[in-house]
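Q: Predict the assembly, please.
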Amino acid sequence: MNYLPNIIFAIALIVGLGYFAKNVKKLVRNIKLGQDVDVSDNKSQRWKNMANIALGQSKLVKRPVSGFLHVVVYVGFIIINIEVLEIIIDGLFGTHRIFSSVLPEAVYGFLIGTFEVLALLVLVAVIIFWIRRNIIKLARFWKPEMKGWPKSDGNIILYFEMVLMTLFLVMNATDLHFQDMNSGNIISQYIAPLFSGMAEGTVHFIERAAWWLHILGILTFLNYLYFSKHLHILLAFPNTFYGRVNNKGELNNLASVTKEVKMMMDPDADPFAAAPEGAEDEVPEKFGASDVQDLSWVQLLNAYTCTECGRCTSECPANLTGKKLSPRKIMMDTRDRLEEVGKNIDANNGEFKEDGKQLLGDYITNEEIWACTSCNACVEACPVSIDPLSIIIEMRRYLVMEKSDAPTELNNMMTNIENNGAPWPYNQQDRLNWKNE
Amino acid sequence: MSEQLNVPTMAELMAAGKTPDILFWVGSAGSYDDRAKKITKAFVKILNKAGVNFGVLGTEESATGDLAKRAGNEFLFQMQAMMNIEVLNMYEVKRIVTCDPHAFNCLKNEYPGLGGTYEVMHHTQFIKQLIDSNKLDIKESDYKGKQITFHDPCYLGRANSEYNAPREVLGSLNANLVEMKRHKATALCCGAGGGQMFKEPEKGDKDINELRTEDALKTNPDIIATACPYCMTMMSDGVKVKEKEAQIKVMDIAELIASSQNL
Ligand code: SF4
Ligand code: SF4
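A: Predicted assembly structure:
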């Protein structure tokens, strides 16, 4: 017996999965560069969010056309994994369509038939997606941040899926044994005649070639994920779980600030008292965020999960009125910078070496940060529970509390609050004047 | 002209040995902004009419700090919050109502973490309760058959998922309610939030309030109803820019209710 194909298959599988595992490790390491946050609250709500938003795609279908097409591709993706399981067993053990001999013929036929229909539907959906992106040119796919890699990434995924689905159908169509069964070849029976004039050996060769390309394609695709916005097919699940559970309007109260404010307001506090035990070696707290390490790991997970769909940006009032701010760009910048930091760490034996760059300034400008109305439209629109606003607020905190670098008018407003307890320069004693006017 | 507005302060009430059922948080805009003061007064008239036992902090009230927080000044926010919480807790305040969704959100969601937990309501929610419990009886109103469109304030709607109370209150006017294309969860911001009210907008094609006003104008309204003092400023300015102030009024829901009652 010739074991060569089995061996080659096993090697391909090990290499493919191994490289993927390596990248997943890197991914986890990068996400953990973020600050710790407590996400142990609201367990049941979190499970519910994951079930509804990630599994149930409840937010996606708010835009019916893309929502429906996405559900097709998503269901196709999940179901076709059963087929992949068969391919892996066949590949490793040199069997052929192992499930057809294990399962009753009718069941097997039903399964494969379902896959074939889905494959066709996915093919159609993906082609429509491609047309929307490239021919209809939906505005949200043609924003400034969608040039270069993000644009080709979106298309590469679509090509990938087109090719994979086609290979799957060709593989079935050229499988004479399968066609002979005449069960489950719902779609492929119409493709089969294309090959009917060919020699049996040629058809078999095509079948083998399609089979190999299909599985190698899947392994390649798996490894492509890490570099792509397509990472969301994995991360949407943890992201919706760890995503926001409280009212969208609620911003966190910085605990480090609470400590200091309490001390300032406490009349008994002795400003010259020795720092409490252990406080000396505490790193001085940095307020807000200027780089990815200052963000929380959930915010970094958010960045890796972003699908670059632009639903946030297409609802953003600032972006709609031509300002530079695009919440999608905030997420993309965060991921790009995080990747850069990760590479830096890899290149320097696990240690980050100062590179003179940071997220704020080198990627995201102050102009973007200050254009936000904190309206939460981006948070509401995101189909995978991403919160771009929280990153914007962290950067404002850094600008205001570390750099005193707010627009002058905002500084005036804040000075007024400080002095008069109102954003306007009016006397607090006049607060009730309206009553008698 | 403010004949018989009854506005007791917490200090006066305390001196008289009384505790009100609710505290009316007037807010900075409601206290100082000329247009917003009218909303404040309209709401007080409603409270008086319904015989609500309320008090205000008056000169003891200070900015919630919400604006500072959204501008990134967490220090200033927490100082304001802690000062206010001290006052509120001293008066043993349990329930707060306010006409400002920003104050509403901040008091409701951000004060508890700093030691100030209260039941907080937006004035539209409160008015809805008054109507539901027949304390406020809205019969025929001048607004019957008028075309009204409602602009959702971000901090009441999206931030706190309250979309119904303002609509139900408006519904009691027997007016013709028309929704803008973007409404409820997808409503467009008026452009004032996050501190934008106090600064020039960044460079762009147009101002946000103009775009929002265009949304509203598409519904052919007689009245644009708002429920936030900042939305009021933004939408009024927008209507002015579009030179429609002769035909279209911008009114807060409290004002609509008060005037329908001839208050
Ligand atoms: S919260 Fe800021 S970034 Fe998000 S949609 Fe509103 S203005 Fe845009
Ligand atoms: S943040 Fe959410 S809505 Fe915005 S582009 Fe990313 S996935 Fe889409």
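The CA atoms of residues 152 and 414 of chain A lie 45 Å apart. DSSP finds 19 helices and no strands in chain A.
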